[in-house]
Amino acid sequence: MESILLTATTSNLPLPRNSSLSPLSFSSSLPNQVSTKVDIRRTNKGTTKAPRIVASSSGSKGRAGKGVSANVAVDGSVAAVGAEAVKDVSWKELQYEEGSTGHRQPLPADPDTEKQMEYITNILGSNVYDVAIESPLQLAPLLSTQLGVNLWLKREDSQQVFSFKIRGAYNMISRLSEEKLKKGIICASAGNHAQGVALAGQRLKTKAYIVMPTTTPQIKIDAVERLDGIVDLYGNSFDEAQKRAKERSEEEGLTFIPPFDDKDVIAGQGTVGMEIGRQIRGKIHAIFVPIGGGGLASGIVSFYKLVYPDVKVFGVEPNDQNSMAQALYRGEIVNVTDIGHFADGVAVQQVGEETFRICYELLDDVILVKKESISAAIKDMFNDGRNILEPSGALSIAGAKAYCEYNNIKGVNIVAVTSGANMNFDQLGQISDLANIDQSILATMLPETPGSLKQLTDLIADLGVTIAEMTYRFSSGSTDALVVYKVKAVDAALETLVRQLDFFGFKTYTLSDNEVVRNHLRYMMGGRQNVENETLFRFTFPEKVGALKHFLKDFQPNWNVSLFHHRHQGILTSDVLIGVQLEKSEEKKFDEYAKRVGYQYEVISQDDSAHVLAKL
Questions:
Q1: Which of 172, 332, 523, 578 has the lowest CB atom count within 10 Å?
Q2: What pLDDT digit, counting tens, does each position of 116-139 carry?
Q3: Is 16 within a domain?
Q4: In a domain, 139, yes or no
Q5: Could you read off the pLDDT of 517-561 as tens digits, one per residue?
Q6: Is 12 among the domain residues?
Q7: How many C-alpha atoms does 471 have within 13 Å on its Cβ side?
Q8: Do residue 284 and residue 214 come from a single domain?
């Protein structure tokens, strides 16, 4: 085995037919390796029991299902799995610092090397280069200088469908029999998987049916249809769309194409790792890979841990879309019922059985990052190369940055896989807002007297702080008003500013960490209101025609809406802030009504700064 591995690492791995690179094309320009002390802060030592692999549909609520259930991704991707129930959890149950590691269960001492060899064989023989290019591996000069490392970007966003997904889809579909290709293929997705399946169907001259929810943005429908995909709009949710796809698969004899939990799909994605190994000859410290269902990470880690076992491979997930991190932490697959939607390309409630098995055995850990860090990574990518990634495509950059900063990593080669660039233009406003991590939101009590606003702004300017945004409205009949504004100051500079304002009699609140304030209330400030019996709710509405009508359909006359703010964010759902005047005796009835409506929601607690701000 050892001699085989040595040969694999030094010989010419097979080049794709359309590659313009030689096996050593990047070695001459690779900066020299600099030795360094690395504080990894790991605790993954020793052995552990085998992982528990169970699965159910996303709506199981912990109950055992019947027959074969489905692994449901928010983007509509589904993978067939077993019928045993899984535990429902919240993303909030597992949170840790950005860039930190050592949170998963210890890596097994004896991974299944036979299956690894099978995967590497399949990766080397994958049929991906009929449709995929060998994506470039590019040094990011500005980010490299900023971090003090050599940050290499594996540009999967440069594929024809602007995503790595074509690799796995084509590899699986190209291996189907002529009989199955004649009948056609089907999947349920409104994301990158849909385009990958459509392109594969077009190249292999088979009908590709893509079931999409009726909430799917037109731009994504058009992208699939341009690739000759046959779109079937069905249902108001992805659960309904995937159910129809499975039914049509059985009734019409169509082959269902899963997004990640399939050996051929994983092998196809694994060619990304094979290419990295061929393109860079210097020692790599770590590779960072975005994780949704785990197909890309499973493919890359299967290749690297056999051929280059010393290279660390980390998955990266948004902190509120942490299905793989939860699974590795608990040692079993779980269903994250309340995942976020900011990075919809990786919004998967439940990872696959095979992808979990591989990641449990081989993946070093999962880095969690916040949406602000993802947005900043998108901005970094734009500044470095004038390219715009989608949030899931920038995950790996955010994870690499957080890891290097948290662990003080310097002078090494880091690779980040930029997995996609199918950006919804409407989301850019939110991303631009979140990317300004050097800014903070403040609220200051301002006396309703002439000259008070000038005094406030003069104090801020005298401290050398720039005001980026300000909202103020005169409050009739009140001695003071509230000013909400953003300043270019964080950490020590922010503390100094707030302390100085308080000293001069301007009571000031720091609100940057409050998502309700950030998304809603800072756009709504006006005169002070004192609304009796008001309860604030944060609802998640689907972005579709009639969503508000459905919410208000059976609204009771004695439930008065006292506040409403909706801001379209360019994703499949919208965050909506609603204030309702409710008598104590009506609270239970409203709760029952909200559950019947079917929109996810939470009550803003009375001591939350958002609630306080709404009443000031």
A1: 523
A2: 999 999 999 999 999 999 999 999
A3: no
A4: yes
A5: 766 655 555 544 567 888 888 888 887 777 888 888 888 888 988
A6: no
A7: 15
A8: no
Rounded to the nearest angstrom, the gap between the alpha carbon of residue 185 and the centroid of all alpha carbons in its chain is 27
Alpha-helical (H) ranges within 90-208 are 113-124, 141-147, 165-173, 178-183, 192-203
Domain that holds residue 421: 88-102+112-160+264-432
130 and 155 co-located in one domain: yes
Residues involved in catalysis? 165, 419
CA distance 197 to 204: 10
* Cβ atoms < 10 Å from Cβ of 10: 10
Strand order in the sheet with 573-581: 560-566, 573-581, 534-542, 601-603
Residues 444 and 490 occupy one common structural domain: yes
Task: For 182-207, give the DSSP string.
Answer: HH-EEEE-SSHHHHHHHHHHHHTT--
- Pair type for strands 480-487 and 440-447: antiparallel
The verdict on residue 249 lying in a domain is yes
What sign does the dihedral 431-435-439-440 (CA atoms) show? positive
Number of domains in the chain: 3
Neighbouring C-beta atoms of residue 558, cutoff 10 Å: 10
pTM of the model: 0.75
Nearest-angstrom CA–CA distance, 312 and 123:
19
CATH of the domain at 98: 3.40.50.1100
- Same domain (yes/no): 445, 515: yes
Closest CA to 350 of 360, 337, 335: 335
